[in-house]
Please model this.
Amino acid sequence: MVMHENINQVIRTVRHYLPDLWSTAAHSTSFQNTRSGYLRSRITLLSVVWGLLIILWIPLDLIFLSDIQAQPIAIARFMLGCGLLLTAWHSHHHTKLYQSQWSLIVLVIMINAFYIYCISVLDFPQAYSGAEYGYTLLPIIHVAILTILPLTLKESLGLLAITALCQIGVDVKAQRLFTPEVMAGYWLQNVLALMVIWSQQSKLYMLMRLYRQATLDPLTGIYNRRMLLQLAQKSLEACEQNQQTFSVLLFDIDKFKRVNDTWGHGAGDDVLKRFTHFIQSQIRKTDLFGRYGGEEFILFLPNCDHQAAQDIANRMLDSIRSLNLDINAVSTQLRITSSVGISSLSHGDSLSSLIERADRALYECKDAGRDCARFHPLGYIYSQNERRKAVA
Model:
C-alpha cells in the first residue's frame, strides 16, 4: 500500500513538472530571469576555464604533432580560446535568457568546428595513434561539459544533436563509421549523454523547486508577498521610464473568517484556491497577481489608468458575485463577495504609497458595507477612519 502511494506520488510529480522540464514555454518570466542568471554564471565560468585550457595546450601540440599539423592546429586552438573568452565576456554582460541560450549554442558550435578542423588537418585518419588519439576524445568532452547546466530536455537534445551530427559527419568522411571501435565509442557516448541529460534535468528540477518554495505561496501557487513586491517594483519603474500608467487593485474576500468558522479551514483553503484561479483567468500576461496576506490579494496593472482599473474591478466584482465555488472539503458550493481598493500612479508616487492608498480605499469599502470597489486618488483623505487619515 505504501509502495503504491509512493509510485502515485512520483507519477503526479512527473506529470506536474514534465512540461517545465521539456521546454521553457510554461516557465514564468521571473523564473526565466532566475534560470538566465544561473546559466549565465556557469556559461561564463565554463568558457573562461575551457578557453584557458585550450590555449595552454598549444605547446603540447607543437611538441607532439608534426610541423605540418602543429602550426594550423595551434592557430585554430588559439582562435578557439579567444572565441571562448569572448563568449564568456558576452555572457557575463547580457542577462536575458535568450542571450544565454545563444551564448551556449555559439560555444557548442565553436568547439565542434574546432574538432572538425583538427580532424581535417590530421587528414581524417581511419585509426588513431599517439598524440592523434586525444582528438577522438573531444566529442566525449563536448558532451560531458554540458553536465553543469540546468537545461530543459529540448535544449539539451538540441545541443547534443550538434555534437552528434559533427562526429557522424567526421566518421563518414573518414570511412570508419561502422568499425567496431567507433561503434563502441558511440555506445559509450550514448550512455554518457543519458547521464548528462539526467544531471541537467535534476539541476533544473531542483532549481525549479527552490524557486517555487522561495517565490510562490504554497497554498494557492501564485506569487508570495516578497516576490510579488520585487516584480511590482520593476514593473512600476518600467512604466515610469516609458511614461505609462500603473494601477493597483487590492482584493479582500468579504467575511472570510465566517467561512473558516462555519465550514472549517479546509473549506477556507478551497475558497482561496478557487478565488485565485478565477482572478488568474481574468488578467493579462503582463499583470502581476499574488497573495498579499491571509485573504488579501493584490493585482498590479501596468499600462492601466484609474478609469480602466475601476472598470476592471467592477467587472470582476460582478463575476465574483455569480461564482459558485466547488468546495471539496465539504462537498458543497459556496458563494462569496469581495471588496477592492484601487489606486493609480501619480507624480511622486512610490510602490508603498500606491499600496497604502489602495489599502485605505479597501477600508472604505468595508465601512460602506463590503462587496464594492473604491478608488483613492493622490491627496484623498478618508475621514471616517481616524487611523487612516494621512494623505498619501
Q: What stands out?
A: The beta strands are 246-253, 288-293, 296-302, 325-327, 332-334, 338-344, 373-375. The radius of gyration is 29 Å. The longest strand covers residues 246-253. Residues 386-392 have pLDDT under 50 and may be disordered.
